[in-house]
Automatic annotation (TrEMBL):
Stretches assigned to the Alanine racemase C-terminal domain: 697-821
Cofactor(s) demanded: pyridoxal 5'-phosphate
Protein name as catalogued: Alanine racemase
NCBIfam families xref list: alr (TIGR00492), PRK11930.1 (NF008897)
Function: Catalyzes the interconversion of L-alanine and D-alanine. May also act on other amino acids.
Class of the enzyme per the UniProt entry, highest EC level: isomerase
């Protein structure tokens, strides 16, 4: 962002300035909205944003103490003489105004991307494709919200030559606010989903709202194959005098018309564009990737002077979800791989991930960094800024790879080593140089840093359960949007977070401000506390022998019997504590744990009224059949019993007591019964009863160990159950029933996804291995195999085995390594 005086900033956001003399010379260069990402520079301006669950005003005193001198606020009570304050009505709007002002100061082209799907992918791919020709500033991660868009646009500086920003909206009226912030010269409308999801009445209304981003654009790129959408776009282009740039898979009149042939995981695309033809390959075969590629192609042809030179780059595109992965490494190292692209903004984000991961496990911070290209900064200045970031995040060691970074050793203050190339690093690699460290491996794509990651990776079992943490956040937010903003959420993290690995998930949920975490037994709660989780934790099955642990680690029991209540009260008394929070379980029809009759509940209340040792934090019940519409009469009965029994409790005490009965399916089907809290389980992990737009969080996958050619008459596996009837190829994969691959999936019942195709399991599943029929696919050892994930749903696997998704998820054995992916 362009440097401003505090007075200028106040004028731009139309705020009232409170400026003690001591701060009158203050200059602003950086914007902070998250107190966790600030490090004591002089030129920061903090915007106290207000969300349904977070209020930036609460951090002002802390931030003043840590050295921030200027604040934009909307609550006048926080204004004091200890800093400069700009008082506005709405801090989010003020942030947008400042960003729009910054945007207006630059005259290089800006691309704006919106749509329901594909925004982030198209943005990242365009960045990859065009970064030789342009110096590009683009939205970090998927910063596309009312706050993310202004923060992205505030990254614009004079040294860039192209901006690429994405905008996402979830309700009418939002695009009006984002359009002036991005003000794109070239627009791209990506896929508009069919569902009337979000808060729109129709697909048409949704499209019209998204189009508002482009009112001042000169050109608009879109797919003309959906006639309704294309009609709306054409009318819009005429109304606002925009040059329409359409592409199509069938219509020769489009600006670009494509045909495609797919083979072995690669698609060859032929385009006719401007009367010329172009041919290129992409490493994808699925429809949505191809659609996103076509958007990129049209954009490259619109923006580049020599688009034909860019064609070979299309074959290098990689799936964007792979941008940042966290893995266990050798010698107690933790690896954070980010080899997708490399620039200052993404370095800064990756460093914050490194910091959080290192802090969690008390590890040293090490960064392996390649040359950073196409920033437009002179390299001395660039690496000085890199060093500043490394210092801010207290990185202890830098390993620089590349000719440019190696040319500036004097600019770096940490312990350092340099290598001219990735090859040079590989040659001198010593395993013992890396110990007890969190290692960020971040390089531009051409440096092929995956080789460095391979060296550092713990080579154990090749079979992994990959957990996409961004998808988890998405799913949490989908459920939040079904609930009132004030309704609290308990996230169920019992059974290793439904098999997904407890601590990582719990940490993330804490970061997302869920109100409670619930575990099955006390030991699971102790693990969370020892990993630094501070969110209140409820133990569903408290056992007497673990009461002392529960009290020491402040784990709150579910109280389901009088006996348990009395014993726990005694334990709290022995620790001389008062008002220890407990949760009263009511049995409204499940006939599992809990108090069932009004008399029992009255006795509980009478006991609790007489002791100050325990305090009722909440009372709850569990639904037995809310996923089944045929049982709705029963469910309604549960609701009325809950209302009757919980009233006895809430009326028994002078303080507020939270009531909750809904689980995931309950939130989907009976949101009107949300009371003050809901308990979210399977939905977080991606399973929806009513087709909510959830994302897949777990992928169970492995790697082919060996491929064999077999002749008719031969058989495969134990008991010779896999019969070969014509020339065949089989692949052996190191996944067996001991990993959680149910034996019922053998003999053609189960399938795997390999090289873009589904293939059947052949023969019986063994303890540690299984065989796939991969005839005709030309697979090789090392190829990846998915058993469930994006391509094969957990629901499908559960149906084939005759069980429910819960059992599939929690059945993946603990020896299968969990790998976390986080943007
Ligand atoms: C596991 C559990 C839940 C979560 O149920 P989902 O169907 O996974 O959402 C809610 N409440 C209780 C008491 C549970 O044990």
């Amino acid at each position: 962002m362009t440097k401003l005086s505090i007075k200028e900033a106040a004028e731009i956001v139309h705020g009232k300035l409170f400026l003690p003399d001591a701060f009158s010379a203050l200059k602003i260069k950086h914007i902070v909205t998250d107190s966790r990402t600030f490090f004591g520079d002089d030129d920061n301006l903090f915007f106290a944003l207000k969300g349904p669950r977070n209020n930036g005003h609460e951090y002002i005193t802390e931030l003043q103490n840590r050295g921030i001198k200027a604040f934009v606020v909307s609550e006048s009570e926080v204004v004091s003489g200890k800093a400069a304050f700009i008082l506005v009505k709405d801090t989010t709007k003020a942030l947008q105004k400042l960003a729009a002002h910054n945007r207006a100061g630059f005259h290089y082209p800006v691309v704006g991307i919106t749509g329901s799907n594909g925004k982030t992918i198209v943005k990242e791919w365009l960045y990859e494709l065009l970064s030789e020709e342009f110096r590009i500033v683009h939205s970090p991660k998927s910063y596309n919200s009312q706050v993310g868009v202004p923060l992205s646009v505030l990254l614009m500086e004079n040294n860039y030559t192209l901006g690429i920003f994405e905008a996402g909206i979830s309700q009418p009226g939002e695009m009006d606010k984002l359009a002036p912030v991005i003000s794109p010269e070239v627009g791209i409308l990506t896929n508009i989903g069919d569902a009337h999801q979000e808060n729109f009445q129709s697909k048409q209304q949704k499209t019209a709202e998204k189009l508002k981003l482009f009112r001042n654009s000169k050109k608009l790129i879109f797919c003309s194959d959906d006639e309704n959408t294309a009609g709306l776009v054409r009318e819009f282009c005429i109304q606002y005098n925009i040059d329409p740039v359409s592409w199509s898979m069938k219509n020769r009149d489009a600006f670009a018309c494509f045909s495609k042939t797919a083979e072995n995981g690669t698609t060859r695309l032929k385009a006719s564009v401007n009367g010329e033809s172009a041919e290129f390959d992409v490493p994808f075969t699925d429809d949505s990737s191809i659609e996103n590629v076509c958007h990129c192609f049209a954009a490259v042809w619109t923006l580049s002077k020599h688009p034909e030179k860019i064609l070979p780059r299309f074959s290098q595109l990689a799936p964007v979800a792979m941008r940042l992965e966290i893995k266990r490494g050798i010698n107690n190292c933790l690896l954070i791989n980010d080899y997708y692209n490399s620039d200052l903004a993404s370095l800064s984000i990756a460093l914050s991930v490194l910091h959080h991961q290192a802090q969690k496990s008390h590890l040293k911070k090490v960064v392996v960094l390649s040359d950073i290209r196409q920033t437009g900064l002179p390299s001395g200045e660039l690496y000085r800024q890199v060093n500043q970031l490394l210092e801010q995040w207290k990185v202890s060691q830098l390993i620089g790879v590349g000719k440019e970074i190696s040319a500036h050793p004097e600019l770096f203050s940490a312990e350092k080593k340099f290598f001219l190339s990735t090859k040079a690093f590989e040659k001198s690699f010593m395993r013992n140089d890396f110990k007890n460290s969190a290692v960020l491996i971040k390089g531009a794509r051409t440096f092929t840093f995956e080789k460095i990651s391979d060296l550092l990776q713990k080579k154990a079992h090749q079979t992994v359960l990959e957990i996409n943490l961004n998808a988890l956040i998405n799913n949490l937010n989908v459920f939040r949007s079904r609930l009132n903003p004030a309704t609290k959420i308990t996230a169920m993290v019992k059974a290793f977070s439904y098999g997904s690995g407890d601590v990582e998930i719990a940490k993330l949920l804490q970061f997302q401000n869920v109100d409670y975490l619930a575990v099955a037994v006390a030991d699971e709660g102790v693990d969370l506390r020892q990993a630094g989780v501070q969110t209140p934790v409820v133990v569903m099955n408290p056992e007497k022998h673990s009461f002392q642990n529960m009290i020491d680690f402040r784990l709150e029991p579910n109280i389901y019997s009088k006996d348990l209540m009395k014993a726990f009260e005694k334990a709290v008394a022995e620790n001389a504590l008062t008002a220890f929070p407990v949760h009263i379980k009511l049995d409204t029809g499940m006939n599992r744990l809990g108090f069932k009759t009004a008399e029992e509940v009255e006795e509980v209340v009478a006991f609790l009224q007489k002791t100050d040792r325990l305090k009722v934090a909440s009372t709850f019940s569990h639904l037995a059949a809310c996923d089944d519409p045929q049982m709705d009469a029963f469910t309604q009965q549960q609701f009325s019993r809950f209302e009757m029994l919980s009233r006895i409790i809430t009326e028994g005490f002078p303080y507020k007591i939270i009531r909750h009965i809904l689980n995931s399916a309950g939130i989907e089907r009976f949101p009107e019964k949300q009371f003050e809290m809901a308990r979210l389980g399977i939905g977080l992990y991606g399973i929806s009863l009513t087709n909510l737009p959830l994302q897949t969080i777990s992928t169970f996958k492995s790697i082919i160990s060996q491929v064999k050619k077999l002749k008719p008459g031969e058989t495969v596996g134990y008991n010779c159950r896999g019969k070969i009837t014509s020339d065949a190829e089989i692949a052996i994969v190191p996944v067996g029933y001991a990993d959680g691959m149910d034996r019922k999936l053998g003999n053609g019942n189960g399938e795997a996804f390999v090289k873009g195709k589904r293939v059947p399991v052949i023969g019986n599943i063994c303890m540690d291995m299984l065989m796939l029929d991969v005839t005709g696919l030309e697979v090789q050892p090392g190829n990846e195999v998915e058993f469930f994930g994006q391509n094969i749903s957990i629901l499908e696997v559960a149906e084939k085995v005759g069980t429910i998704p819960y059992e599939i998820l929690t059945g993946i054995s603990q020896r299968v390594k969990r790998i976390y992916i986080h943007e």
